[in-house]
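Dear support,

I submitted the protein below through the web form. The confirmation email said the job was done, but the results page showed an empty box. After a refresh the structure appeared. I'm attaching both so you can tell me whether what I see now is the final result or a partial one.
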Amino acid sequence: MNLCDPRTIKDIMTAFGLSFRKEFGQNFLTDIGTVEAIAESCAGDNTKTVLEIGAGFGSLTHELALRYENVIALEIDQGLIPLLGYTLSSDKNARVIEADVTKTDLGELLADSFKAGGVAVCANLPYYITTPILLQLLDSRLPFDSITVMVQSEVADRLCAAPGKPEYGSVTAYTGYFGECRRLLDVPAGRFLPPPKVDSAVVRIDLYKEKPVVPKDEKTLFRVIRAAFGQRRKTLPNALSAGFGELSKQAVTEAVTEAGIAANVRGETLSVDDFCRISDRLTEKLSAAEAQK
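What the results page shows now:
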C-alpha cells in the first residue's frame, strides 16, 4: 500500500468517512522521497524511540517504524485513529495514541523510552501551533536527542538564522540556547494533499547534552532576549531598560558595557553567548538592587 499516493489517500479517507480538517492541519505528504528523507534524517544512530506528533495518514509513521525500534505517534483527531489502525497494521513497533500533545505528560509517557535509549521528536503540525509546541518541548527539559519539525519556510528562516540577519529574532536566540538548528530540506506546497498556501521546510534541532553557555539565572537570560527583540529599532540599553524597569538606565547600560558589548548595538546582532554575559551582569545588579531595599 502506497501511503503517499493521492488516489490511495482519497480512497481510504472516503472509506472511513473522513474529510481533510483544516483545524488539525491535515495536509498529507504525497511525495515518498520527502517522507523517506524526513524519516532518515530526523534522528541519530543512537536513537531507539521516535515520538511523532501528528500521525496524520500514517505515511511518515510507517517510514519511522522501518528505521527505529519504537515509534510512539500522537494524533489529536479521533476520526483518524481507526484509519491509522488500518494503514499501520503491519507496523507492530508503532503505537498510535489519541492525544493532544499540549495536554500530555510527555515525561510520564516516555519514561521507559528514556531509560531504554535515545528519544527523538518528529512533528508535522498545523503551522499556527508549531512554534508554541516547539517551545513547549524545549521548556520541558526532557532529554530528547533532537526535535525535527515541519514549518513554514519563513519560520525555518527564522529558526536557523545567524545573528545580524533580518530573520534573526527572539525565537532564534531562545532555540539556540537549547540546541543547534539546521535546515534539512525544503518541501514545496505541491507535495501535499490538499496543498497548503505556502511552501514548507523541515528543520532539526540537535539538543545540547551540555549547554555551551550557562547563565547565572535562566529567567533573567530569557527576559534579556525578550526585551532585546521587543523594540528592535532601539539600541540595546534602551530596549533592555523597557524590560528591566526595576533598574536605572545607567545600571542597564553598565551591564551591557561590562559584558564587553558596545552600548550602541542592537539585539539582533548578538549571539546567545553575548546575551548570557549581559544576563549575568544584570543578575548581579538585580541582586544588589534587591539587597539595598
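Response: this is the final, complete result; the empty box was a page-load delay. The chain has a mean pLDDT of 95.
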